[in-house]
Write a sequence for this structure.
Protein backbone atom coordinates (compact mmCIF):
# COMPACT_ATOMS: atom_id res chain seq x y z
CA UNK A 1 0.00 0.00 0.00
CA UNK A 2 1.37 3.38 -0.92
CA UNK A 3 2.07 5.62 2.04
CA UNK A 4 -0.21 8.62 2.51
CA UNK A 5 2.31 10.64 4.56
CA UNK A 6 4.16 13.44 2.86
CA UNK A 7 7.79 12.64 2.28
CA UNK A 8 10.54 13.74 -0.10
CA UNK A 9 11.83 11.57 -2.91
CA UNK A 10 13.79 8.66 -1.44
CA UNK A 11 17.56 8.54 -1.50
CA UNK A 12 19.29 6.37 -4.13
CA UNK A 13 19.64 3.39 -1.80
CA UNK A 14 15.81 3.06 -1.70
CA UNK A 15 15.64 2.62 -5.43
CA UNK A 16 14.92 -0.79 -6.86
CA UNK A 17 16.71 -1.35 -10.15
CA UNK A 18 14.14 -2.86 -12.52
CA UNK A 19 16.12 -3.01 -15.74
CA UNK A 20 18.77 -1.34 -17.82
CA UNK A 21 16.70 1.80 -18.48
CA UNK A 22 14.46 2.26 -15.44
CA UNK A 23 14.20 1.87 -11.69
CA UNK A 24 11.33 1.84 -9.20
CA UNK A 25 11.03 4.30 -6.35
CA UNK A 26 8.48 6.61 -4.68
CA UNK A 27 7.89 10.27 -5.43
CA UNK A 28 5.97 13.11 -3.87
CA UNK A 29 2.76 13.31 -5.87
CA UNK A 30 3.17 17.07 -6.23
CA UNK A 31 6.47 16.53 -8.04
CA UNK A 32 4.75 14.76 -10.95
CA UNK A 33 3.92 16.78 -14.05
CA UNK A 34 0.99 15.70 -16.21
CA UNK A 35 1.48 17.41 -19.57
CA UNK A 36 -1.41 18.23 -21.87
CA UNK A 37 -0.30 15.58 -24.36
CA UNK A 38 -0.78 12.81 -21.79
CA UNK A 39 -4.07 14.17 -20.46
CA UNK A 40 -7.30 12.74 -21.85
CA UNK A 41 -10.84 11.92 -20.83
CA UNK A 42 -10.04 9.42 -18.08
CA UNK A 43 -13.59 8.10 -17.79
CA UNK A 44 -14.92 6.52 -14.61
CA UNK A 45 -12.05 6.17 -12.14
CA UNK A 46 -14.09 4.50 -9.37
CA UNK A 47 -12.89 0.89 -9.96
CA UNK A 48 -9.29 2.00 -10.38
CA UNK A 49 -9.43 4.17 -7.26
CA UNK A 50 -10.82 1.29 -5.22
CA UNK A 51 -8.13 -1.05 -6.56
CA UNK A 52 -5.35 1.33 -5.53
CA UNK A 53 -6.99 1.92 -2.13
CA UNK A 54 -7.20 -1.84 -1.44
CA UNK A 55 -4.02 -3.25 -2.93
CA UNK A 56 -1.89 -0.30 -3.97
CA UNK A 57 -0.32 0.08 -7.40
CA UNK A 58 -0.15 -3.12 -9.42
CA UNK A 59 1.91 -1.11 -11.89
CA UNK A 60 3.61 2.15 -10.86
CA UNK A 61 3.32 5.35 -12.86
CA UNK A 62 6.06 5.74 -15.49
CA UNK A 63 7.84 9.10 -15.39
CA UNK A 64 10.93 10.85 -16.68
CA UNK A 65 13.79 11.69 -14.27
CA UNK A 66 12.33 15.20 -13.81
CA UNK A 67 8.83 13.90 -13.05
CA UNK A 68 7.00 14.26 -16.36
CA UNK A 69 4.38 11.51 -16.66
CA UNK A 70 4.98 9.17 -19.60
CA UNK A 71 2.32 6.58 -18.83
CA UNK A 72 -0.20 6.35 -16.01
CA UNK A 73 -2.32 9.48 -16.14
CA UNK A 74 -5.36 7.57 -14.86
CA UNK A 75 -3.37 6.11 -11.97
CA UNK A 76 -2.12 9.59 -11.03
CA UNK A 77 -5.64 11.05 -11.09
CA UNK A 78 -6.93 8.16 -8.96
CA UNK A 79 -4.08 8.65 -6.47
CA UNK A 80 -4.90 12.35 -6.21
CA UNK A 81 -8.56 11.50 -5.59
CA UNK A 82 -7.44 9.26 -2.71
CA UNK A 83 -5.37 12.05 -1.23
CA UNK A 84 -2.09 10.14 -1.52
CA UNK A 85 1.00 12.24 -1.03
CA UNK A 86 3.56 9.78 -2.38
CA UNK A 87 3.15 7.33 -5.24
CA UNK A 88 5.13 4.44 -6.63
CA UNK A 89 6.84 5.28 -9.91
CA UNK A 90 9.03 3.73 -12.56
CA UNK A 91 11.67 6.26 -13.61
CA UNK A 92 12.85 5.91 -17.21
CA UNK A 93 16.48 6.95 -17.61
CA UNK A 94 16.68 6.57 -21.40
CA UNK A 95 14.45 9.49 -22.41
CA UNK A 96 16.02 12.35 -24.34
CA UNK A 97 15.78 15.88 -22.96
CA UNK A 98 13.77 16.94 -26.04
CA UNK A 99 11.14 14.25 -25.42
CA UNK A 100 11.08 15.19 -21.74
CA UNK A 101 10.20 18.78 -22.67
CA UNK A 102 7.45 17.58 -24.98
CA UNK A 103 5.89 15.41 -22.28
CA UNK A 104 6.02 18.23 -19.72
CA UNK A 105 4.22 20.81 -21.91
CA UNK A 106 1.25 22.15 -19.95
CA UNK A 107 -0.63 23.67 -22.90
CA UNK A 108 -0.46 24.10 -26.62
CA UNK A 109 2.17 26.70 -27.44
CA UNK A 110 1.13 28.36 -30.66
CA UNK A 111 4.20 30.56 -30.63
CA UNK A 112 6.64 27.65 -30.53
CA UNK A 113 8.10 26.51 -33.83
CA UNK A 114 6.29 23.26 -34.85
CA UNK A 115 8.22 20.03 -34.52
CA UNK A 116 9.56 18.74 -37.82
CA UNK A 117 8.45 15.35 -39.12
CA UNK A 118 11.86 13.89 -38.25
CA UNK A 119 11.62 15.18 -34.67
CA UNK A 120 8.10 13.76 -34.38
CA UNK A 121 9.26 10.38 -35.68
CA UNK A 122 12.09 10.20 -33.15
CA UNK A 123 9.71 11.09 -30.29
CA UNK A 124 7.25 8.50 -31.61
CA UNK A 125 9.89 5.79 -31.78
CA UNK A 126 10.97 6.37 -28.18
CA UNK A 127 7.42 6.47 -26.84
CA UNK A 128 6.28 3.44 -28.81
CA UNK A 129 9.08 1.37 -27.32
CA UNK A 130 8.38 2.67 -23.81
CA UNK A 131 4.64 1.99 -24.08
CA UNK A 132 5.28 -1.52 -25.41
CA UNK A 133 7.69 -2.27 -22.56
CA UNK A 134 5.20 -0.86 -20.06
CA UNK A 135 2.50 -3.13 -21.48
CA UNK A 136 4.74 -6.18 -21.06
CA UNK A 137 5.61 -5.17 -17.48
CA UNK A 138 1.94 -4.54 -16.75
CA UNK A 139 1.04 -8.02 -17.95
CA UNK A 140 3.65 -9.56 -15.66
CA UNK A 141 2.56 -7.40 -12.74
CA UNK A 142 -1.12 -8.27 -13.10
CA UNK A 143 -0.40 -11.93 -13.71
CA UNK A 144 1.92 -12.46 -10.75
CA UNK A 145 1.45 -9.51 -8.38
CA UNK A 146 -2.30 -8.93 -8.09
CA UNK A 147 -4.88 -10.93 -6.12
CA UNK A 148 -7.29 -13.02 -8.22
CA UNK A 149 -10.05 -10.90 -9.68
CA UNK A 150 -8.43 -7.59 -8.76
CA UNK A 151 -8.97 -4.72 -11.23
CA UNK A 152 -6.03 -4.02 -13.49
CA UNK A 153 -4.82 -0.73 -12.11
CA UNK A 154 -2.26 -0.36 -14.86
CA UNK A 155 -4.70 -0.69 -17.74
CA UNK A 156 -4.47 2.00 -20.40
CA UNK A 157 -7.40 4.34 -20.77
CA UNK A 158 -9.93 3.33 -23.41
CA UNK A 159 -10.05 5.30 -26.61
CA UNK A 160 -13.09 7.28 -27.69
CA UNK A 161 -14.33 4.23 -29.57
CA UNK A 162 -14.09 2.06 -26.43
CA UNK A 163 -11.21 0.03 -27.83
CA UNK A 164 -7.92 0.06 -25.93
CA UNK A 165 -5.16 1.89 -27.67
CA UNK A 166 -1.88 0.13 -28.45
CA UNK A 167 1.71 1.29 -28.19
CA UNK A 168 2.07 2.79 -31.67
CA UNK A 169 -1.36 4.41 -31.64
CA UNK A 170 -0.80 5.88 -28.18
CA UNK A 171 2.65 7.18 -29.10
CA UNK A 172 1.33 8.85 -32.26
CA UNK A 173 -1.54 10.47 -30.37
CA UNK A 174 0.85 11.89 -27.79
CA UNK A 175 3.24 13.28 -30.39
CA UNK A 176 0.84 14.53 -33.07
CA UNK A 177 -2.63 14.36 -31.53
CA UNK A 178 -3.91 12.06 -34.26
CA UNK A 179 -3.64 8.52 -35.60
CA UNK A 180 -0.42 9.00 -37.53
CA UNK A 181 1.44 5.85 -36.40
CA UNK A 182 1.61 4.40 -39.92
CA UNK A 183 3.22 7.55 -41.34
CA UNK A 184 5.58 8.03 -38.41
CA UNK A 185 6.59 4.36 -38.65
CA UNK A 186 7.65 4.91 -42.23
CA UNK A 187 9.84 7.85 -41.23
CA UNK A 188 11.41 5.73 -38.48
CA UNK A 189 12.18 3.06 -41.06
CA UNK A 190 13.90 5.64 -43.27
CA UNK A 191 15.96 6.87 -40.32
CA UNK A 192 17.03 3.31 -39.59
CA UNK A 193 18.10 2.84 -43.22
CA UNK A 194 20.00 6.11 -43.04
CA UNK A 195 21.95 4.83 -40.03
CA UNK A 196 22.59 1.36 -41.49
CA UNK A 197 26.18 1.15 -42.80
CA UNK A 198 25.38 -2.02 -44.73
CA UNK A 199 23.05 -0.29 -47.18
CA UNK A 200 24.35 0.28 -50.70
CA UNK A 201 25.36 3.72 -51.86
CA UNK A 202 22.35 3.84 -54.16
CA UNK A 203 19.91 3.11 -51.34
CA UNK A 204 21.65 5.57 -49.02
CA UNK A 205 21.37 8.34 -51.63
CA UNK A 206 17.67 7.56 -52.09
CA UNK A 207 17.11 7.67 -48.34
CA UNK A 208 18.96 10.98 -47.95
CA UNK A 209 16.91 12.50 -50.75
CA UNK A 210 13.66 11.20 -49.24
CA UNK A 211 14.46 12.58 -45.80
CA UNK A 212 15.44 15.96 -47.23
CA UNK A 213 12.06 16.13 -48.99
CA UNK A 214 10.13 15.02 -45.91
CA UNK A 215 11.76 17.41 -43.43
CA UNK A 216 10.42 19.69 -42.10
CA UNK A 217 6.82 19.23 -43.30
CA UNK A 218 6.96 17.49 -46.68
CA UNK A 219 4.89 14.48 -47.82
CA UNK A 220 5.98 11.14 -46.37
CA UNK A 221 4.31 8.34 -48.31
CA UNK A 222 5.52 9.11 -51.88
CA UNK A 223 9.09 9.64 -50.71
CA UNK A 224 9.01 6.48 -48.60
CA UNK A 225 7.70 4.49 -51.57
CA UNK A 226 10.47 5.79 -53.83
CA UNK A 227 13.04 4.36 -51.41
CA UNK A 228 11.25 1.01 -51.29
CA UNK A 229 11.22 0.97 -55.11
CA UNK A 230 14.98 1.54 -55.16
CA UNK A 231 15.45 -1.36 -52.74
CA UNK A 232 13.30 -3.73 -54.80
CA UNK A 233 14.95 -2.70 -58.04
CA UNK A 234 18.40 -3.20 -56.55
CA UNK A 235 17.45 -6.72 -55.48
CA UNK A 236 16.31 -7.50 -59.01
CA UNK A 237 19.62 -6.21 -60.40
CA UNK A 238 21.59 -8.32 -57.96
CA UNK A 239 19.64 -11.43 -58.94
CA UNK A 240 20.06 -10.66 -62.65
CA UNK A 241 23.83 -10.44 -62.23
CA UNK A 242 24.31 -13.44 -59.94
CA UNK A 243 26.06 -16.15 -61.96
CA UNK A 244 25.42 -18.70 -59.21
CA UNK A 245 21.69 -18.61 -59.99
CA UNK A 246 19.98 -20.58 -62.76
CA UNK A 247 19.96 -18.85 -66.13
CA UNK A 248 16.16 -18.89 -66.18
CA UNK A 249 16.02 -16.92 -62.93
CA UNK A 250 18.55 -14.38 -64.15
CA UNK A 251 16.74 -13.98 -67.45
CA UNK A 252 13.43 -13.45 -65.68
CA UNK A 253 15.00 -10.78 -63.47
CA UNK A 254 16.34 -9.02 -66.60
CA UNK A 255 12.91 -9.07 -68.23
CA UNK A 256 11.20 -7.81 -65.08
CA UNK A 257 13.69 -4.94 -64.82
CA UNK A 258 13.09 -3.94 -68.43
CA UNK A 259 9.33 -3.99 -67.89
CA UNK A 260 9.33 -1.78 -64.79
CA UNK A 261 7.62 1.60 -65.31
CA UNK A 262 9.98 4.58 -65.23
CA UNK A 263 7.35 7.18 -64.43
CA UNK A 264 3.99 7.16 -62.71
CA UNK A 265 2.51 7.47 -59.25
CA UNK A 266 5.01 6.34 -56.58
CA UNK A 267 2.48 3.81 -55.25
CA UNK A 268 2.01 2.24 -58.68
CA UNK A 269 5.74 2.15 -59.48
CA UNK A 270 6.56 0.61 -56.11
CA UNK A 271 3.83 -2.01 -56.42
CA UNK A 272 5.14 -2.97 -59.87
CA UNK A 273 8.68 -3.38 -58.48
CA UNK A 274 7.43 -5.34 -55.47
CA UNK A 275 5.41 -7.75 -57.58
CA UNK A 276 8.32 -8.18 -60.00
CA UNK A 277 10.67 -9.10 -57.16
CA UNK A 278 8.09 -11.49 -55.74
CA UNK A 279 7.72 -13.29 -59.08
CA UNK A 280 11.49 -13.65 -59.50
CA UNK A 281 12.16 -14.86 -55.96
CA UNK A 282 9.22 -17.26 -56.19
CA UNK A 283 10.80 -19.01 -59.17
CA UNK A 284 14.20 -19.00 -57.46
CA UNK A 285 12.74 -20.61 -54.36
CA UNK A 286 10.63 -23.25 -56.11
CA UNK A 287 12.33 -26.55 -55.15
CA UNK A 288 12.89 -29.02 -57.99
CA UNK A 289 11.68 -32.58 -57.60
CA UNK A 290 13.75 -34.67 -55.20
CA UNK A 291 15.77 -31.74 -53.82
CA UNK A 292 14.08 -31.41 -50.45
CA UNK A 293 14.39 -33.33 -47.22
CA UNK A 294 12.50 -33.50 -43.93
CA UNK A 295 14.37 -31.63 -41.19
CA UNK A 296 11.73 -31.11 -38.53
CA UNK A 297 9.73 -34.10 -37.41
CA UNK A 298 7.28 -31.99 -35.47
CA UNK A 299 6.18 -29.86 -38.40
CA UNK A 300 7.39 -32.15 -41.19
CA UNK A 301 8.87 -29.16 -43.01
CA UNK A 302 10.90 -29.62 -46.19
CA UNK A 303 13.71 -27.32 -47.16
CA UNK A 304 16.11 -26.51 -49.92
CA UNK A 305 19.31 -24.50 -49.70
CA UNK A 306 18.73 -21.23 -51.55
CA UNK A 307 21.23 -18.63 -52.68
CA UNK A 308 22.03 -15.56 -50.55
CA UNK A 309 20.12 -13.47 -53.10
CA UNK A 310 16.93 -15.29 -52.17
CA UNK A 311 17.61 -14.46 -48.52
CA UNK A 312 18.11 -10.76 -49.23
CA UNK A 313 14.90 -10.77 -51.27
CA UNK A 314 12.98 -12.27 -48.35
CA UNK A 315 14.54 -9.79 -45.91
CA UNK A 316 13.58 -6.90 -48.21
CA UNK A 317 10.01 -8.19 -48.28
CA UNK A 318 9.88 -8.38 -44.45
CA UNK A 319 11.97 -5.28 -43.87
CA UNK A 320 11.15 -3.57 -40.54
CA UNK A 321 8.19 -5.88 -39.92
CA UNK A 322 8.47 -5.18 -36.17
CA UNK A 323 7.44 -1.55 -36.76
CA UNK A 324 3.97 -2.59 -37.85
CA UNK A 325 2.94 -4.87 -34.96
CA UNK A 326 2.25 -4.16 -31.31
CA UNK A 327 3.98 -6.57 -28.87
CA UNK A 328 1.21 -6.34 -26.28
CA UNK A 329 -1.44 -7.13 -28.90
CA UNK A 330 0.59 -10.08 -30.24
CA UNK A 331 1.09 -11.41 -26.71
CA UNK A 332 -2.64 -11.34 -26.05
CA UNK A 333 -4.05 -12.63 -29.35
CA UNK A 334 -1.76 -15.42 -30.62
CA UNK A 335 -2.90 -18.96 -29.93
CA UNK A 336 -0.51 -21.39 -28.22
CA UNK A 337 0.25 -23.02 -31.56
CA UNK A 338 0.87 -19.68 -33.27
CA UNK A 339 3.08 -18.56 -30.38
CA UNK A 340 5.10 -21.78 -30.58
CA UNK A 341 5.57 -21.33 -34.32
CA UNK A 342 6.57 -17.68 -33.89
CA UNK A 343 9.11 -18.37 -31.12
CA UNK A 344 10.50 -21.31 -33.08
CA UNK A 345 11.02 -19.03 -36.07
CA UNK A 346 12.76 -16.39 -33.96
CA UNK A 347 14.97 -18.91 -32.16
CA UNK A 348 16.13 -20.53 -35.40
CA UNK A 349 16.71 -17.08 -36.91
CA UNK A 350 18.92 -16.09 -33.97
CA UNK A 351 20.90 -19.34 -34.20
CA UNK A 352 21.37 -18.84 -37.93
CA UNK A 353 22.58 -15.26 -37.34
CA UNK A 354 25.00 -16.34 -34.62
CA UNK A 355 26.52 -19.03 -36.84
CA UNK A 356 26.75 -16.71 -39.86
CA UNK A 357 28.34 -14.00 -37.68
CA UNK A 358 30.91 -16.49 -36.38
CA UNK A 359 31.81 -17.58 -39.90
CA UNK A 360 31.93 -14.00 -41.15
CA UNK A 361 34.29 -13.01 -38.31
CA UNK A 362 36.51 -16.03 -38.95
CA UNK A 363 36.79 -15.12 -42.63
CA UNK A 364 37.64 -11.47 -41.95
Amino acid sequence: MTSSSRSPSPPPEQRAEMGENYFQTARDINDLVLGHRIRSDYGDLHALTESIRLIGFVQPITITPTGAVVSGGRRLQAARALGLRTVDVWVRTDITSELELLLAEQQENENRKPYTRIEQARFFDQLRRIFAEDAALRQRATRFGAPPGAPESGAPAPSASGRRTHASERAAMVVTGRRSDYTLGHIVELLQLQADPHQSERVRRAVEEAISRIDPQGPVEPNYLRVKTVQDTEQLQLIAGDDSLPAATRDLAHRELQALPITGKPSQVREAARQALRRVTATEQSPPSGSTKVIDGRRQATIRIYSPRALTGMVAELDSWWLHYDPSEVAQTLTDEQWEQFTDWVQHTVRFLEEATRLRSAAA
User: Anything to note?
Assistant: The longest helix spans residues 117-145. The two ends are 58 Å apart (CA to CA).
